[in-house]
Amino acid sequence: MLFLFATQENSKAAPDNHVPQSGLQLSSYTGYGWATAGVSLATVVFWFFRTRLDPGQASLLYMPVVIACASRYGFGPAMFGAALSFFSWDYFFLPPSFTIFVNSSRNWISLAIFFVAAVTTAHLAATGRNQAKKAQARELETLMLYEASQAISQEIEVDRLLLALVEQVVQICRASRCLVLKPAIVGTSLEVAASAGVSVMGPLMEAGVRKIAQSAMQQNRIIGLDAGTPILKQFKEMSLPAELLQGTDQEVGLYLPLDMHGTPVGVLFVGPQRDGRFYTDQEKRLVMTMANHAAVVIARQELAESAKLQARQTAVLDERNRLAEEVHDTLSHSFTGIKFLLEAATRIEAGPAATECVMQARDLAIEGAKQARRSVWALRPVRLEETGDLASAIREMAQRDTSMSGLNIDVQIQGTPAPLGDAAEENLLRICQEAITNVLRHARAINAAISLCYESQGVVLSIKDDGIGIPEEAAGNTDGFGMTSMKARAGRIGGTLSIGSRHPQGTEITISMPISIENQE
Amino acid sequence: MNTEIAAGTSNLIRILLADDHPSVRMGLRLILNNEPDMEVVAEAENGNQALELYRQHRPTITLMDLKMVETSGVDSIIAIRKEFPAAKIIVLTTYDRDEDIYRSIRAGAMGYLVKDSAYDEIVQTIRTVFSGRKHYSSRISEKLAERLMMPDLSEREMEVLRLMARGESNKEIAEELSLALGTVKYHINNIYTKLEVEDRTQAVVTALRKGLAEL
To answer: Which residues of chain A make contact with B24, given a CB cutoff of 8 A?
Structure first.
């Protein structure tokens, strides 16, 4: 039986050598023709030699025709050929010729044996042929799935994964079109996330697809609509509400919910096949397999989304932490000191001690104001996207952050600069900035040097100063010097941070980061 | 022996200052020495030094900052009180976050002052604590009460919260604490419930505000 689709766009039948065919029927008409032709030919050939051969030997010519039909066209045409041979032999060659009567019992036996042998052979050959066909179909299916998953897994960009998938579905299933629909945000209505195949789809049709997809998702079951049966009847059979049809065009095809641990995350829709046929069970299985792939892809996309969101939140927290630390270390410290000094100056007797308090308070106020200015500069981050590359960003940051401090800073870039990925560059820049802030605050250094060295295996960033180094008593606990956040940053980009400090000969901080594919993303 | 002598010398309040900020120490020393009944006997700039100087001078009152490089104020209070259970320690710090107050008082601080308190309040608190009573301002008591109302976070939840505040992802937290990702998520959910917040950012901000996590 043939399914014909009302929406069929493409009426030329595609060559049928890709997918196991649903209809033995179609090709078998040709088979019957060939059977007739073969038997006729055998009859004509034997007719010419009939005087020189024994009529019993005709079976030698008929049998190959039957076998050929069986192996090429299956059991039906072979049986037809066998019957035709039987009658031709009887009619033309077995005496009395041109009658269906047979006069000798020997010839009767020959005919009967021929017929039994033909049936048995036809049956055997046809069975073999079917099994071979099935095996071939299975091999093809496996091959196509392999190629599809290959194509999908080679797609690196998560955002393009769904597109790669729907393209594969269109190719493998020879579908007119394939769409993946998913809610933009969980709980909202479905939207087309990817589409392939015949791309033009009217608004009414899209509305129809969405509505049916929505109910497939809500009920978490497959909905298959074919054009061979009235849609309303199919709706009734599946107990779908007829209201779904109102104001929309109905798009026939398969609607498969994309199931992730029992919760549908979207819907895969495949339109009818390009030659108009509906999907056989085997082809449905193929589509279902692709739907499973799609569910995994969506899960992967969601994971990538949440990772991005978390990275953004982390960046916000980092910035907030930096701000809080900056304010505590500069402003609040200065003000508290000034408060206590002035409090003392007003309470103790006037004299050198009181004057000393006021002087110190004044110095602290000047220092605090200077620090505050520096902080404001430092808090306005150097933006990588403004400077273009890491090396320039580090140069600009170093120059700007130290411009009011009197610290001499030298920036060296070695090797061939290569892009390291946004996250890695951002973190390296911030580590560098924090290290310089530390030098300015604690080191009492005159000179500092930043070196960024690109090697084939990775990058090494080092920040060196000639200040007092980290005091020995604090060496075991470097957390107070902003090391924790620098270490965390280094860890986040798969790098390691080491601190070399020999009190009182300056400090060197080195960050090594291997270049990996992940960082280059 | 020293203590007996100290106690014997009338009602002089002998004070140890522990603060990493020299200007604060200088200001405090000058005003406190100006009070007839007080004398600053030693100044420490970190927690370890505070313990050493305490052993040396046996002060009657210790003014302790909480945020110092190296040993924190709270750890220092615990260390001093372990050796000298009768030590009278007053916290004098920049912050009045719930958790700092709670932990200081649990460690044995008999007073809690913020650095912007009026001078008279500082002197008054020193005298009250010296006489053997505890003294917390109404604001501090309020915050302590608030902290006591909050369900306690477990050790594990505290660890997770601190790592969250450091900006680590669930995966990183799981690796660091050798936990399954699911377990980390479970802890984080409990943290949300206990802190009465809805998301990660709120949790971290609350934690920092209350002092449950440090920067």
So the answer is: 336-337, 340
A contact test, residue of B71, B166, B215 with most A CBs within 10 A: B215
3-state DSSP assignment of residue A258: strand
The DSSP bridge pattern shows strands A177-183 and A190-197 to be antiparallel
Contact A342 B27 (CB under 8 A): yes
Average pLDDT of span A98-108 = 81
Q: Show the domains of chain B with their CATH numbers.
A: 2-147 (3.40.50.2300), 155-210 (1.10.10.10)
Q: Does residue A20 carry a pLDDT above 60?
A: no
Residue A314 has its nearest CB partner, among B34, B116, B169, at: B169
Contact present, B18 and B73 (Cβ < 8 Å): yes
Q: A156-306 is classed in which CATH architecture? A: 2-Layer Sandwich (3.30)
One-letter amino acid for residue A65 of the chain: V
Give residue for tokens 């956040």.
Answer: A485
Residue whose token pair is 């939207």: A191
Is residue A311 exposed (0-12), middle (13-18) or buried (19+ Cβ within 10 Å)? middle
The DSSP bridge pattern shows strands A447-454 and A408-414 to be parallel
Among A261, A308, A317, the strongest candidate for a mutation testing the B interface, having the largest count of B CBs within 10 A, is A317
Q: Write out the two tokens for A452.
A: 């960024």
The CATH homologous superfamily to which domain A387-521 belongs is Histidine kinase-like ATPase, C-terminal domain (3.30.565.10)
Which residues in chain A touch residue B21, judged by CB atoms under 8 angstroms apart? 333, 336-337
Tens digits of residue pLDDT in A204-239: 778 888 888 888 888 888 888 887 777 778 888 887
Residue B214's closest chain A neighbor by CA? A321
Taking alpha carbons only, the member of A443, A409, A430 closest to residue A497 is A430
pLDDT at res. A12:
36
